[in-house]
Design a protein that fits this description.
The complex is a heterodimer.
Chain A lengths: L2 H17 L6 H12 L1 H19 L6 H11 L4
Chain B lengths: L2 H9 L3 H23 L2 H18 L9 H19 L11 H4 L19 H12 L3 H12 L4 H8 L3 H23 L4
Helix pairs in contact in B: 1-2, 2-3, 2-4, 3-4, 4-7, 6-9, 7-8, 7-9, 8-9
The chains are: A mainly alpha, B mainly alpha.
Chain lengths: ~80, ~190
């Protein structure tokens, strides 16, 4: 099985899992068939993935002052 | 030194071990707090209260669940309490499934996640979008999708059933995707 097919299966599994359906249920087969040929759904799926990536990559670092204030607050100074 | 040993030492009053546990998790807790609060001052306050709770209660920590799960639970509860006390804020409704997933305006976005660090306007858009998401949905989205916890762990932390976690996650993703689509399809 190619990597691409394994990834698709994982995706389908995920979608169908959330729908409460088996991978080979008529509904999941119909969804897979639709996804294969529908640009709008592909774009929608990509935009949901991108949304998650945006929030994953938006991070803040603990700077030295914040770290010191935390240890002071807890009475655990170095 | 393993986390298990650090916890044992901390439970026996070893302050250096306690400080090391704080150090090991401060970045995770601060980042998660910020992602919920979208405000550095509130995130710092939440982080301090979370670790204070850890320091006070470390002796009762049984080790049945991971320390990280326990810390996520404290941050989530702080966030939900704060949100309930701030009822002034009107959250968007995300109950209407038909409006959540619309076939209109399915367009490519002209900006990628790699551009986040240098783009303040994009950060503001992300902050605004997630602040309009009700807190109980926000927590599920952040735990499951952003922090990468399993559905089961997310359910345990939020005290929700697995179907409820999945339903909230689905709605939160769709809501945020729509909010970003409004801005990123046209303004950039």
């Amino acid at each position: 099985m190619s990597t691409e097919k394994a990834t698709c299966k994982e995706v389908m599994n995920h979608i169908c899992d959330n729908l409460g359906e088996d991978l080979d249920s008529p509904r999941c087969v119909a969804i897979k068939s639709h996804l294969d040929s529908c640009d709008s759904c592909k774009k929608y799926f990509t935009s949901v993935e991108t949304t998650i990536q945006f929030y994953k990559k938006y991070n803040v670092e603990v700077d030295d002052n914040t770290h010191k204030r935390l240890l002071d607050f807890l009475g655990l100074e170095d | 030194m393993s986390e298990e040993l650090l916890i044992q030492k901390a439970q026996n009053g070893d302050r250096a071990a306690l400080a090391q546990l704080v150090k090991n998790y401060e970045q995770t807790v601060y980042n998660f707090s910020f992602k919920i609060c979208r405000n550095k001052e509130k995130a710092e306050h939440t982080m301090q209260e979370t670790f204070l709770s850890m320091v006070k209660n470390i002796e009762q920590f049984s080790g049945k669940s991971k320390l990280s799960t326990w810390l996520y639970t404290v941050v989530s509860n702080n966030c939900l309490m704060l949100a309930r006390s701030q009822k002034k804020h009107e959250y968007s409704s995300i109950d209407d499934e038909d409006n959540l997933i619309s076939e209109d305006n399915i367009a490519d976005w002209k900006i990628t996640p790699d551009q986040i660090s240098e783009n303040i306007e994009l950060k503001n858009i992300l902050d605004d979008a997630i602040q309009n998401l009700p807190a109980d949905y926000r927590v599920v989205f952040l735990l499951r999708d952003v922090e990468g916890l399993s559905t089961e762990e997310t359910g345990k932390i939020t005290e929700l059933s697995i179907p409820a976690v999945k339903s909230r996650l689905h709605r939160a993703r769709a809501f945020l995707r729509n909010e970003l689509n409004k801005k990123l399809s046209y303004e950039y």
